[in-house]
Amino acid sequence: xxxxxxxxxxxxxxLFRFIIIVFLFGIxxxxxxxxxxxxxxxxxxxxxxxAFFAALLNLVYILINRRIRAKxxxxxxxxxxxxxxxxxxxxxxxxxxxxxxxLYQLVIIYGVFFLRKLGGIYAASGSSILYGVLLDLEYxxxxxxxxxxxxxxxxxxxxxxxxxxVYVLSFYVVAALSIFIVERERKxxxxxxxxxxxxxxxxxxxxxxxxxxxxxxxxxxxxxxIKTFNQAAIAIxxxxxxxxxxxxxxxxxxxxxxxxxxxxxxxxxDGKKVVLGLSFSALRDSQGEEIGGxxxxxxxxxxxxxxxxxxxxxRMAFVGQMASNLAHELRNPLMxxxxxxxxxxxxxxxxxxDERLINIAIRAKDRLEGVIRDFLFLSGQKExxxxxxxxxxxxxxQVETIKKDLALKDSINLNVHIPEGTIFIGNRDELRHLxxxxxxxxxxxxxxxxxxxxxVGKEKLDGGEGIKxxxxxxxxxxxxxxxxxxxxxxxxxxxxxxxxxxxxxxMIVQTYRGKIHVDSSxxxxxxxxxxxxxxxxxxxxxx
Length: 543
Hints:
Helices cover 57% and strands 16% of the residues. It contains 14 helices and 12 strands. A hairpin with a 2-residue loop joins strand 9 and strand 10 (464-473). Helix 4 runs antiparallel to helix 6 and helix 12 packs antiparallel against helix 14. The longest helix is centred in the middle third of the chain and has 56 residues, at 157-212. It is rod-shaped and about 165 Å long. The relative contact order is 0.05.
């Protein structure tokens, strides 16, 4: 990079030299025309030869500059030949009386510019030596003189010495000033580069910190338009920076006043709903003047889910304990009631109406027994046996049981899709309740007719092997505001529901440290997806 810059500067020097040659040729040509009117007569053939020599050198410089690598040596070569050329020009334009020694100073300046102090001293010393030799040779008449003053005998030794001393002093003064200016400029440029690099490093450090931090950071100007949007903010919101930069922040978030913390529910473009914590503070410059604002964004979704899970577990523990006590309190009276009904049915000759009433009582008793069984299962007070369970057989049994219990009509279709030989290591009773309640929930959702699909397959989970159970119906669907509540004990929207089925499903899923997901909306049915990791033979999992 630096070599290309030097090469380009040398080309500029060659161009500048060519302009000077043309300019001087023009001046001398005009002076020669006016020579008859008292101007200085110049011997044009010599001058033309010198101009041609200088132009030829320029052409050679252009050709050499493309290939030569030793740029400093090349510059010293140019300085030397320029000094010789200027000396020749001074000789042809009057020698002692010539005004062209000032051109030496141009060579000194570009010598300092390209080669710094060494170049300036070399050019000043070379100029002094060549100019002094020329004056001596001309004054002592070793070479012919083109100076009219010398020919007329008006030049004295003191004049020659004075002229030499003045020009030599000017050469070194110009060299010293040029060195001072160039060195000062170099130090200033170096200082600016160092500061620019320091600012750049500091900017990269700040950007690195802002981009690496897990908290979303958004800055806005005084008008509230977004100016920066870090990687964490992108990950949290799912927004593309190209689509939010320079947009008003209020179009993205409803920000409260400065200094106030707020939590908002936000729906990302991918449909995921998150809870965000937003903190808005004023952004000030070094003088304390407000120049905008800074918004800190945190994704609180996991914290809220953990808090809700803890709260649900507490409720489930309380409900489980209450269910256990209530089931034990109801079981004995219910057994007595059931026995009495059976004895009356066997000992009495009942009329058709009485038989119908007895059957209603028995069905009510069976339903109450089912609720008590759910209570006991919900309490979790049962030793768990972990074994290999054939899911093909288990699901087929539950489908037949539901068909028998509910006396399903032909308008309701239950479709099972499960690979042969699908084995899961777990508790048979828990899996039975899980499948039964999910299928029952789907049937209750579709009403008099519809389809419930049960799909089972193996799946790789974070902890290893597992299964995925999907129960899909084409029923009426679940409103968005109710999805978070359907797993709460005793919460139901169905006329004959107890509100315990899905609560039991969630409890079983949590026991296996699995996951359950519901995708539903009114009018398009529901899809319940359960993922369970494989258990270990002989070991139960604590809930």
